[in-house]
Design brief:
296 residues; alpha/beta; Metallo-beta-lactamase, Chain A; eight-stranded mixed beta sheet; seven-stranded mixed beta sheet; 9 helices; 35% helix; 26% strand; binds zinc ion
Length: 296
């Protein structure tokens, strides 16, 4: 009898362990579920990925994944594995700001590893092997391809969109690929973030004319990796960001960011984040408030 009782106790204890164990893992997945659902309903995440010299910005909200630029060729694998680790299999929208390798370089890796729903592009072409590979892969996979210009709106969810400020047609100068970058403002209720690609002063001046009243944004992805060819004073004044993020590789050949650009941001007394020093930078927002965290 006693032995039997112990057996019952042992079974009960085992059941409790099982239930607790189960509860834990259910709790864990419920937590993950809530996070995923939370993301679907309200939480916006923007990650400026630490992928060396180049831009790759991953936006997640409302169950969608949007990638603005894809980094350079040499960091392609790092970028792909980063996005895979996020549990992403489909990238709903990819925006290529301009066809330079430090923005387009990862695209073959994206097309090989993820299902891509739609591509948005500045409409600028290049004579590089990389550009030809990109176009041929997009054609082969029959991915919808839209050329965006100033005034276009890319709707991500009901209240979340990217409003395109540049390039404006006609292009500034056909050869000025940076200056005809796609510039977009990510808007989620009260929160906004300006994504500038490598737009330089001429593009900034044009946007100041066309969108003076709309440039103001909480967060600015600094143009052209903090080069002194961008971040003109008038433009900075209109954007009036509270925080600036520079996507830049450590010890890059271009000496980005330029000390004079850093000084401008310092004088404006706003918080500057750099992927070379801070790693991947994550901005989250519920549409009312926002938070910025750094990896390092
Ligand atoms: Zn660039």
């Amino acid at each position: 009898m006693r032995k039997g009782l112990w057996q019952v106790v042992a079974v009960l204890v085992a059941m409790m362990i099982l239930v607790t164990g189960c509860g834990k893992s259910i709790g864990k997945s419920a937590e993950q579920g809530q996070a995923a659902q939370g993301q679907q309903s309200s939480l916006l995440t923007v990650k400026v990925l630490d992928i060396g010299q180049g831009d790759a910005i991953l936006i997640r909200v409302a169950g969608q994944a949007v990638l603005v630029d894809t980094g350079d060729i040499e960091h392609r694998d790092k970028m792909v594995s980063y996005i895979k680790k996020e549990g992403i299999t489909t990238i709903d929208k990819v925006i290529i700001t301009h066809p330079h390798a430090d923005h387009l370089g990862g695209m073959p890796g994206i097309l090989e590893n993820f299902k891509v729903g739609q591509i948005y592009d500045s409409g600028q072409t290049a004579t590089t092997a990389l550009y030809r590979q990109y176009l041929s892969m997009v054609n082969k996979k029959n991915i919808p391809f839209t050329i965006v210009t100033s005034g276009t709106e890319i709707i991500i969810a009901n209240d979340i969109k990217l409003k395109i400020f540049a390039p404006e047609k006609p292009f500034i100068t056909e050869s000025e690929i940076n200056n005809n970058s796609v510039v977009s403002k990510l808007i989620y209720n009260k929160f906004s973030m300006l994504l500038t690609g490598d737009a330089e002063k001429d593009s900034e001046a044009r946007m100041l004319k066309t969108y003076a009243g709309e440039l103001k944004s909480n967060v600015l992805k600094v143009g052209h990796h903090g080069s002194n060819t961008s971040s003109s004073p008038g433009f900075l004044k209109s954007v009036a960001p509270e925080a600036a993020i520079i996507s830049v590789g450590a010890n890059n050949d271009y000496h980005h960011p330029h000390p004079s650009t850093l000084k401008k941001y310092e004088q404006a007394k706003l918080k500057v984040y750099r992927t070379d020093l801070d790693g991947t930078i994550t901005v989250t927002s519920d549409g009312n408030t926002y938070n910025i965290t750094k990896e390092k």
